[in-house]
Amino acid sequence: MLIYVTMIVTAIAALELYRGRANVDVDPFKLTLKLLGLYTGLNLALWALGMRNANYVATTEQPAQMLAYLGIAMNRVQLPLAWGVNNAGVIASATLTAGLIKFYHQRLWRDVPLLIAAPIITCVLADSRAGLVWAFACAVGVIAAPKLSGRALLVLWSTSILFVVGADYLPALTLGARDGATTFTNREIIWAGGIFELAKGKLEHIFGFGHYGQFESGAYAFYEAIFATISDRPELISLHNTYLQAALDIGYVGLGITVLFVFGSVKSLSSMRAAGWNYSAAQAVIMVLALNGITEVTLEFYQPWNALMLASIIPMLRIRENEILRR
Predict the structure, then answer these.
(1) Highest mean pLDDT pick, 25-39, 71-85, 93-107, 270-284
(2) Which of 2, 64, 124, 230 has its CA 20 to 30 A from that of 217?
(3) CA dihedral defined by 100, 102, 107, 112, rounded to 10 degrees?
(4) Overall number of domains in the chain
(5) Residue 322 in domain
(6) Is residue 321 domain-resident?
């Protein structure tokens, strides 16, 4: 309950700053980053004390590949306060990329435990290889962008993508192939359900079906049977792709707005690097959420922490808008 209250208060503060009604020296993004660090650290502490997730399901256990590379045989960890294993990795990824940029600019070693070490440990325990790669790639990309050419940045992003795909594909040739798992742990089957639904060309696709669009549209029928043994409500399993989920939930119109928000906010924040490290960090967070959104639902309100991150960044875009109006 305390976590939810904190999120709501922070979101309201962000909205008031955006509207220009509040006159307080509080940066919602910096506050949110502190909360994310505390949340990640608390999750690890509770797990170390033996607390388990209330929604833990034994049949979802899978070997942690990154720990296996280190010679440690254990399953992926579903942390006590997490909304699923993968969502914990996304939150840790966003916290880590912002923490790396903050440390680069301020060199405050007190930030390392909660903003760098705890997120890395979380990604390793959750076996979020993509989360780790995107976090470091976005942090390095944002920091180096003013010094690198467009071609160099393209090489950086291409290498990161190949690393993520390769890190997932190689185990699938060994453990995954032997155990019957697919390269993206059956995500491609879920994606196919969403794509086939959109291929029908319904009028509802313009504005979407609303929350849980995969259920309302019937797209879940394509993969329901596969997940029936690991979920009580397989029809409510998300499409594990931000952009497919947006297309079914809020339609092509909403998907267009989502994409424009990503590109617009990244471009706006990139022009304000000189104003403080938090603008570069916010830019990296948007990029991390967008990239993790390829295999998870990150830019919608299924995950409260993701919604809080987006709400904390909006006032920063408002500052940019005011600067433009003053010119």
Answers:
(1) 93-107
(2) 230
(3) -50
(4) 1
(5) no
(6) no
The torsion angles phi and psi of 75, rounded to 5 degrees, stand at -85, 160
Q: Which residue(s) pair with 75 in the sheet?
A: 63
SS3 category, 144: helix
Give residue 12's domain range.
Answer: 2-316
Tokens 């940019």 belong to 320
**Contact present, 324 and 24 (Cβ < 8 Å):** no
| Long-range interactions of 314-317: CB distance < 8 A, separation 24+ | 314/14, 314/15, 314/18, 315/14, 315/17, 315/18, 315/28, 315/29, 316/29, 316/269, 316/272, 316/278, 316/279, 316/282, 317/264, 317/265, 317/268, 317/269
Query: Helices (DSSP H) in 217-303: which residue ranges?
Result: 242-249, 251-270, 277-292
Q: How far apart are CA 143 and CA 140, in angstroms?
A: 5
Residue 177 belongs to a domain: yes
Give the single-character DSSP code of 61. -
Give residue 235's identity as a one-letter amino acid code: E
HSE value, Cβ hemisphere, 13 Å, CA-based, for 276: 9
Lowest mean pLDDT among 5-9, 75-79, 203-207: 5-9
247 in a domain, yes or no?
Answer: yes
- Render pLDDT for 136-162 as a digit per residue (tens, 0 to 9): 989 988 888 776 555 665 666 666 666
> Could you give the C-alpha distances from 312 to 181, 190, 252, 297, 325, in angstroms and in order?
38, 31, 26, 19, 22
What torsion do the CA atoms of 281, 283, 288, 291 make, to the nearest 10 degrees? -170
Contact (CB, 8 A) for 78 and 60:
yes
Two tokens at 290?
Answer: 């967008």
